[in-house]
Every structure is written in structure tokens, then in C-alpha cells.
Amino acid sequence: MDDLKIALPCGFTTKLIKVEMQADKFQCPVCKNHEVTRQECMKITRNKLVIGQASLEIKLEKLSDCEQNLQVFKKDPEYFVDESVAQIKNKIDLRREEIKLLINQKIDAYYEDLLELIEEKKKLKLNEFKKNTEKIDSSKNDMYDLKELIDADIKSKLEFIDNHSRKIENQIDLINTTITDLTDMDFVHNSQEIDVENLFGKVKFASNLEGKNFYDQGKFKLVIDDLSKIREKNKLKIFSKPYTMRNLEWIIKVKLSKNESGQTGLGLYLFCLTAFESVKVSVYADSELKLLHKTVPEKSISIRKKKLFDKNNCGFGTTDLITFDKLINPKNGFYDAENDSITIEALIRVDNPQTDDCSVTSSDEKIFTRIKLSHGKEKYFFEYKNGSSEIVQQRSSSEYY
Fold first, then answer.
1. Does the predicted model carry a pTM greater than 0.70?
2. What does the alpha-carbon distance between residue 371 and residue 28 come to, in Å, rounded to a whole number?
3. What's the pLDDT tens digit per position in 79-116?
């Protein structure tokens, strides 16, 4: 993608990466006697076509990788689901032995019911997997058919690229969902001692097998400014403004730390504050954290997790998503050199929270949090979506680092 040649307003061509690395307005890299803007370059129809075709090729490569991954599961799907079932059965066995002395007869009866339920769901999983793979196979050839790009006019080509990109994205989502749902089960329990079902635990199956959909979803971003000033600040921790969805508060945490090779790495985490602060609250969520690429969304680095957020396990993340050297290199596309910033995005899809004292509300509000160093690195402020700013707290720099 970076080696793509695009047209300049003056008629000459240059590499896309050279334009992406420039400020909004810059000297023409060929003529060197006039100024151009990135917006002017990107509005040129030929450039839209070239970039669109390159993006389409990247998506096709991603689709091919997904299909290769799917082939592994298609060779013996029963093996993979059996492995998952074996792990669940092992958890159930351990849980049974823990409380067998208390209510032996009831627990044994419920245990047998669970195993029978797992076997039933296993059949459903295999049937669902077969249906999805047949659907994927039936549309595979259409995904790689680009004949309409050969003789069509530019407008038609652009429309084809947009429509075909959406088809490919849907195909990728279906493949990933098919693979995930094949083994996506979990065993959950709580500490109540009265209700046998609640005491023993439940088997968590993939949502589409039970007709269950995630109740709500939300997205919020954290922008970190003055990135170059914090390079040497080992063990630095930055937290986003809390984002509230259905009375559940979430935050993004960013941490800089040295890895085993001595390089500074960027750690990225998502936490449910409400679950951490109360033993009465737990929520099953499909959450994703992304380090956003400035120009090509497909190049964003992401981590994703489906899990139960509760008092004992209220977050997830990675200690070393990317080294700081790679992060701050403009060629990699994550660092905004003009604003000295990076952007982190969190996407959360939640099931109904298990709680005794939280009312249910719905919100798709997007909270945009900006954290900035200022006044000799001694103040942080949040800049909210409406453009207002607020000094959060003044501390010495050592308290931040």
C-alpha cells in the first residue's frame, strides 16, 4: 500500500506514503515550486480508484487467510468441539467435587443434566457449522470475481469496489463467527448456596445457538497527545474518561513499560469499573481494543476478547501491543506527526448484566477523550467531544510517572 503511486494536482506522480507523512499543506515533492494539500490529492478520481483497488486486494488477502484458517477446522470440526467440550466437562467435574459434600444428591442430578445439555448443544454446533460452511463455500467464487473492473467506467468501478468490499467484509465476519461459535462455550458459576443451578454453575454457549443476541453496544476513543514527550517515561499509566453504557462504566488504560529486550512497549487494557467495584455485578461482553491506523482501517492493530467481567476478573488486555519505536514511526501509520498523537478505540458489545441493583438503560453515546501534557508536563486535561476542556488535577510530574 505504501508503494502505491498517486497523482498530484500538477500532473506528476509520487508515492502515497510521501503524501501521508506530510502536513495538511506541503510543498510539491516533484515540482518543489508550489504547495498542495493532502485533501486535494485524495479527491483526485484516479487516486480514489488506485487506493480503492489496493484496499480491495488487502481485504481479499485477509479473506484468503480466513478461508485457510477455516479449512483447518473443516478437516475435523468434531475434534475441535470435543476439545472444548472436554475442557468444560473438566471444569464441571472440579466444581462438582467442591460442593458434593453439601448437597450431594441434587448436585449429581444437575451434573448429569448439564452433560446431556452439552451433548445436545454439541450437535447444534456441528449442524450450525455445516450450514455456515456451505454458505461460505457457495459464495467463495463470487468473492474473487473482479471481471467488472476490466471494461467498466471509473464511476462503475468505484461503485463495484464499494459494494464488493462490503460483501468481502460480510464474508470475513461470517467465517470468523463460524470458527468462534464452534468452540465458544464457557462454564460460569457464583457463590450462592441456596439455588442449586446458581450454586453449581451454567454452561455458556455461543449466542446464536441459544437465539441470544448481545443487548447493546458502544464505542469510545482515547486520544493521547504529546506522545513524543513521554517516550522515556517508563511505567507511565494513562486512563481514559469513564464511558457509561447501560449503567456500566468502562475505561481504557494505556501503560508504557520495558519488555524483555529492553525496548519500551505499549500496553493496552479495557476494564469494567462497575464490575470491579461491586460483587453484585457481572456482565458477559464481546470487547475489542484497537490502535487505529490513520488512513487504512484494515491496518489497525486490535485485540478482542469474549469473557465474563466480574469482581475477580474485571478486565483484559496485553502488556506489549507494539514497541514505542514502531508506534512513533510515521511510516507505520499509527502516529499523527502533525498533532503528536495516537488514537485508541474500544468497542463493547454486552449481554444483559447480572445485577441486583442496576437499572437498565440504553445508550450508543460516543465519548471522545483527549489527554494532553501541558505546563511543563505537570497538568493533564480532558478535551471532550463538544470542544470544552477541563483541568482534571494538578500534580507533580513524578506522580504521573
1. no
2. 34
3. 888 888 888 888 888 877 876 777 777 777 888 888 99
What pLDDT, in 10s, does the model give residues 345-401? 999 988 655 544 333 333 333 334 444 443 333 333 333 333 333 333 322 222 222
